[in-house]
Design goal:
- The chain has about 270 residues and is an alpha/beta fold.
- It has 9 helices and 13 strands.
- The chain has one domain: 4-Layer Sandwich (Metallo-beta-lactamase, Chain A), CATH 3.60.15.10.
- Helix content is about 25%, strand content about 25%.
- The strands form 2 sheets. A 7-stranded mixed sheet has the order 7-8-9-10-11-12-13, with no helix packed on it.
- Strand 8 and strand 9 form a beta hairpin.
- The longest helix is centred in the first third of the chain and has 15 residues.
- It binds zinc ion (ZN) (2 copies).
- One zinc ion (ZN) binds next to loops.
């Protein structure tokens, strides 16, 4: 496993705009604003309908159409798929031409195939409106336990004789929580294993109480610190920080509040 972190671009500010580009997977996590580079990604995973997450869907699709790019695919919670279609229809009427797009309603437990043999599955989250997160999966092969420590020449010989020395296993590459209360860390086991966890942490200190954060359907850093044992051990991306906090302030607070073992795993997308 390489220790290089997956490249992420874009922005995420609570209540303002969230659109996180993942160029290596050809996708964007939510579409609260459509940047010049987000247009290049053909898949958008929509966590919920709040407009700081879904307000630029029509812009993304219409710009791709204008640039003669293939029709994009939007994965959306089943509960809002009809409204998203109507949004595209209304935008097409305003624009004087239909907006080519593929809206896919998907629920936790269902699977959607991505390019490169990867796939994604939504998981339930806990927000004020219908919402879900997503994990992108990949199948890899590893040496079966009984052959650990076997010399290379002996392994090659086994393979020549048709012995299966490898076994497949599914790896959670990237998980995105969207907006949610912190319970998601307890209820979705794959979040403890995923290689990159992109999670909302809307509030970082006493300016907003844990109680108020929960009432709004969001995560407070206090709650994350209480559950540090549940966090994955490779790459954690905090996002969706409240606009109350400036960028330098965010970095200062996060650096000051995280224990050493977490500080090196965490990056913040603002
Ligand atoms: Zn939000
Ligand atoms: Zn929201």
């Amino acid at each position: 496993m390489s220790n290089e972190r997956i490249v992420l671009a874009g922005f995420s500010v609570a209540g303002v705009e969230t659109a996180i580009e993942v160029p290596s997977l050809k996708l964007v996590l939510d579409m609260g604003r459509c940047s010049r580079t987000a247009v290049n990604q053909p898949f958008v995973l929509v966590s919920h309908g709040h407009l700081d997450h879904a307000g630029a869907l029509t812009q993304h699709a219409s710009r791709r159409s204008m640039m003669k790019m293939p029709e994009p695919t939007y994965l959306v919670p089943g509960a809002i798929a009809g409204e998203v279609e109507r949004l595209f229809d209304a935008a097409g009427t305003l624009d004087g031409q239909p907006i080519p797009r593929r809206v896919v309603a998907i629920e936790p437990g269902q699977t959607f195939a991505l390019p490169g043999g990867r796939w994604l599955r939504p998981f339930p989250t806990f927000h004020r409106v219908a919402s879900q997160g997503y994990t992108v999966w990949e199948r890899r092969h590893r040496l079966r336990a009984e052959f650990q420590g076997t010399a290379g020449a002996a392994l090659a010989d086994l393979k020549r004789r048709g012995v299966e020395v490898d076994e497949p296993h599914d790896v959670a590459l990237l998980s995105f929580t969207g907006d949610t209360r912190v319970e998601v860390l307890e209820s979705v086991p794959e979040l403890q294993q995923t290689e990159t966890l992109v999670m909302e942490t809307s509030f970082l200190d006493g300016r907003v109480s844990v109680e108020d954060a929960r009432a709004m359907g969001h995560i407070h850093l206090d709650e994350v610190l209480d559950r540090r044992a549940l966090l994955p051990r490779r790459d954690i991306v905090f996002c969706h920080v409240s606009a109350r906090y400036g960028q330098a302030e965010i970095e200062r607070i996060v650096a000051a509040r995280l224990p050493d073992e977490l500080r090196e795993l965490v990056r913040v997308l603002v």
